[in-house]
User: What shape does this take?
Amino acid sequence: MSRSLILITVDCLRADHAGFMGYGSPTTPFLDRLAEESFVFPRAIATGAPTYYSFPGIMASRFPLALGREVVGLAPGETTLATVLQGAGYRTAAFVAGNPYLSSLFHYEQGFGVFRDFLSEGTPSAKAGEQCGPRASLRTRVNERVARVAHTLGPLGRLYNELYFQYCQRLAASGQETWDGLRRYPAADVLVDQACDWLASTGAQPFFLWLHFMDPHAPYYPPAEALQALGAHIGPSRARYVNSAWNRDDLDARHLRKYRDEIVLLHDAGIRWVDTQLARLVGKLRNLSCWESSVFAVTADHGEEFLDRGGTFHPPSQTQQEMLRVPLLIRVPGVGKKQLSDAPFSHLHLGPTLLEAMGIGSPGAFEGRSYWTALQEGSGWELAISESIGSCTNGMDTVLRMGGRRVVVQERRYKLVLDFGQRSEQLFDLDADPSELCSLPLESEKAVRARLLRAGLEHCQRAARRPKAELSLRARVRQIGLEWSHTKMQSATLAS
Amino acid sequence: MTTAIREIRLPSELCDAVEQHFGAQFTNIEDLLVFVLSELIREDSHKLDQSDQQMIEARLRDLGYL
Assistant: This one.
């Protein structure tokens, strides 16, 4: 009988915040138990960050910039895990918690018979935002004018920012805030409810189910139950205040630090809620007698920063381990747990490996290879490459996409970071300096540098040969259409 | 200086549909096609990729490995 596949991806889930990866807080008790009978990768590495640079590696086993840096998302007609499995007769469904970069806008619906991205219904807070209207925009314009003047008067600028922030918080505080009302994405229980309904309809046919959770993604508004499970006592009003403060770009790390612990608690509670819902999903799979014939994989697209380097969130300029290292757990029925090598395992190889674990051949279009056999021996992978455009903080912005590329080449001990925009090169010894605080002198470790530079060069040469020219063309045509729609929407907004 | 022009033939049904769809942004279908084709032949990304490659090659030469 063919094995089914359940792929769970969790946005912003840092590897070091998962219990089965050694975190001290009980964020993942269910996954911790599951890890006892699963392959757990000590160092799985995303092919890029954030989401729009990570997911081509997960879904299509290719590097994010392989179609050219103009392209964000998948190309129309691109081969993905879903298209392969649908072609093999699988029923396929995806439930994506409102991340636009994983929507049909960017062709992630390809290969899925059912695809829910939860973008059309909106969330209560988004709808509330839409109702702010002319009064809010007048307030913004007045603020901008006054702020401009205040900032010419030295310290008065900072004082003004703080007063304006407190004023906005008072306006926003209704005294009746709820977690559900504040949340910008559907919570994990909503996705699992719909996934369970769909599972009940699949019958005996093998299936591929993909769930993408946003619960640990900012702004962080977990359910109260998850906070209680972590022993945290933060109410929705306080969470709104702390999230707003954390989002201020006028505050440096020194001023943000006082909110850090609460923000981490909120983030961790989001992870805990996902874990709780995964336990429910697996319960359903057991009830339907699907569990023992399903491959179950859990990973993240990238991590999140909590002032580790003085920054927040997950910008593409960050290439440290807290951003690129992600949890990866694969449970295959009937195959026992094995201690795995701590060499970096690239997401590029996840799709091919999962397919082989299910007895399905990997398509030639995939750039990665299967390590299924090596997995059962515990080792065999050596090196991982990640890339991003460091300045592209908004994947919808076509100008930002053309910025300087960053390429990261890492093996077990050494990590080379090439920033082509800054024309800089950093080499880190991860044994001596696991936090990547101090790059080695430029003239040191020449043999190591040369080895990693060669890997980087092969990577660049592969892209330059343009093996996916037709896909790139289709993606760029689609992109032009997207830009026009975006321009049309902006014009309509300005006119109204 | 005159630009050499090449004439192409397209199904009129297709042209009508495109003009209806994109009429607000382009005065005629010729302008739309010039825009789309110009965008598609831009080599910005490829040039940047080649520049990245050259930077690595230069570095390997500095290290005596090329």
